[in-house]
Amino acid sequence: MTLREPEGELGEALERAIDEAARLIGASRHVVALVGAGLSAESGVPTFRGPEGLWTKHREPDLRDYERFVEDPKRWWELRQERASRFAELAQALETAVPNPGHFALRDLEEMGRLQHIITQNIDNLHQIAGSQAVTEIHGNRTKLRCVVCNHRWPLEGFPLDELPPKCPDCKSGIVKGDTVMFGEPIPRDALDECISQSRMCDCMLLIGTSAVVYPAAGFPVDVKSSGGTLIEVNPTPTPLTELCEVVIRAPAGETLPLVVQKLRAS
Ligand code: APR
Q1: pTM for the whole thing?
Q2: What is the pLDDT of residues 208-223, one digit of tens each?
Q3: Is the CA virtual torsion 221, 51, 90, 184 positive or negative?
Q4: Cα separation of 180 and 137, whole Å?
Q5: What is the widest separation between alpha-carbon atoms in the chain?
Q6: Could you report the per-residue pLDDT of 42-55, keeping only the tens digit for each?
Q7: What single string gives the DSSP state of each residue in 92-118?
Q8: Considering only CA atoms, which residue is closest to atom 21 of ligand 1?
Q9: Going by CA atoms, what residue is nearest to atom 36 of ligand 1?
Q10: Closest ligand 1 atom to 217 CA
């Protein structure tokens, strides 16, 4: 799909949508971006659903994932150390991925004071690498570890793993696991509380690269809408939330978010 018509102009509808998105963001007090795998697609990280999605190709993990961890955390850690993941494709892509213009556009919006917070479902750490500050990772971060009791987090790098499963050096009672939230695992309370409070303050939410089918994340835009806020969707394909959106940018985020930044800079 090309964004630009043969003469180089953006398709009229797309141009209007980008204009309208910039106007709405500019007129809003507390803008929050809800981000999904689609934002990192242009960084080579596979998405989960849709024709080329990981779950489409390899079957979605079942909800017993976390239960298996709780039953035998030592076994879970041994498998993890053996990198016995059946999603090697994802692991490899995550190892080499770098932020794309979509990530940098969100960083720019934050620096311009036009974006107050990012709620990301992505575990890839690309927002932080791009320089974004106000980020809540509702599904965790692949470069971190977390205590399942006190939610304290540490960088994976350098954390002592001589004893498996590792015990929490802080609360001494919890077991430490990867920070990534597993299927069947409750969302860590601190992250969930921050998402709820940001959604409450939000009067304009950007839905970027998410299929909006996984909860609780997919519920936040509905809360924003029901409290009178506006929604802007950036996604090449429709989602269950499209009909609730004031503006729809039906194109890749990496190609269009920088244009929204340009419009705001020029306004
Ligand atoms: N720009 C914007 N959106 C894109 C792009 C792009 N370049 N490429 C794909 N998309 C869209 C797809 O059309 C789809 O709607 O991104 C969406 C990706 O959807 P999913 O693969 O379902 O990813 P996500 O919504 O993040 O999934 C939520 O599900 O499996 C769990 O933990 C996993 O965090 C993930 C959660």
Answers
A1: 0.95
A2: 999 999 999 999 999 9
A3: positive
A4: 9
A5: 65
A6: 999 999 998 889 98
A7: HHHHH----HHHHHHHHHHHTTS--EE
A8: 48
A9: 214
A10: 28
